Amino acid sequence: MSGIETVDSALLARFPLPHVPEDSGKEDRGRLLVIAGSRELAGAALLAGISALRAGAGKLQIGTAASIASPMAVAVPEARVIGYPETEEGCIAEAGIAPLVGWAKAAQAVAIGCGMQSGPPLTRLLAELLGCGACCPLVLDAAVLDCLPELAGEVGLWSGGTILLPHGGEMARLLGLEREEVEADPVAAVREAARRFRAIALVKGGCSYVADPDGRTFRLEGGGVGLATSGSGDVLSGIVGGLCARGAPTLTALLWGIWLHAEAGRALTGRVGRLGFLARELPGEIPGLLPDNRA
Helix H segments across the chain? Predict the structure, then answer.
């Protein structure tokens, strides 16, 4: 396809990640707030959070359902875990919105949506966040993507930069299309999503595509069929969020994020096999793939 750049080491050299001096501290690598998880999908918050730290974020905060906050704090001792009240359906309750927005204002990046329950409470959370006056990258994935059509104007005005991480079905709902239409022309879909929401957009698949609001488009062959497994997308969300917290521009963070994710899949395919490796095994591959990561 014409006008599409291939994501490889040569291209990534033109999108360098922020250098981390040896005498820097954790504050220099930024604070990421991950808002994720629910009673039924607690692991999504864990996978995203651990992946952000493996990508080099300095500090991690996890906002998650109160019912799972204590075990989450034990499972991820590196994180500050903020429990929010839930509705009977497992959504965030109204009383939990304002505190999370307060935490978001102090973060260098926010990743939201993995493992959450979609619906009006989540839409209200996103609307409050978009209207809070903060300015940091937002990484939007999974359930929160269903909130975007009615907030397209607000998303487009967000000055901190927005990244959208839908798979084909989520992209179809974003654009009011059938999934088959997205899969037939993923380039047109990702470009339209980037234009409509003024965001850096991805459509995930065996071959993934990235577009910016001006139509610049990138292509990456996937890291193997083994990446099509539960939790893999949560890992990607965390990697991208962690790179944003470190100070990477949104397009840089997403291009590196999908490459790191794919290379981690390739590494596990070589050691474990095409199928059967777990999403929880992906984050451990990330540090060895990061550039400038040797003492």
Answer: 9-12, 42-54, 66-75, 97-105, 120-130, 152-157, 168-175, 179-184, 186-197, 232-245, 250-271, 286-289
Is 135 among the domain residues? yes
We report the CATH number of the domain holding residue 176 as 3.40.1190.20
* Beta-carbon-side half-sphere exposure of residue 102 (alpha carbons within 13 Å): 7
Rounded CA-CA distance 235/240 in Å is 9
C-alpha span between 22 and 64 (Å, rounded): 33
**Residue 4 lies inside a defined structural domain of this protein:** no
Is 64 a domain residue? Answer: yes
Closest CA to 236 of 253, 224, 251: 253
Our separate counts of H helices and E strands in the chain read 12, 10
Domain range enclosing 224: 26-289
Return d(Cα 294, Cα 156) in angstroms, integer: 39
Using CA atoms of 210, 212, 216, 219 in order, give the dihedral in degrees to the nearest 10.
-10
R_g of the chain computed on alpha carbons: 18
pLDDT digits (tens, 9 = 90+) for 108-119: 999 999 999 989
Distance of alpha carbon 207 from the chain centroid: 18
Mean pLDDT score across all residues of the chain: 95
pTM recorded for the entire structure: 0.96
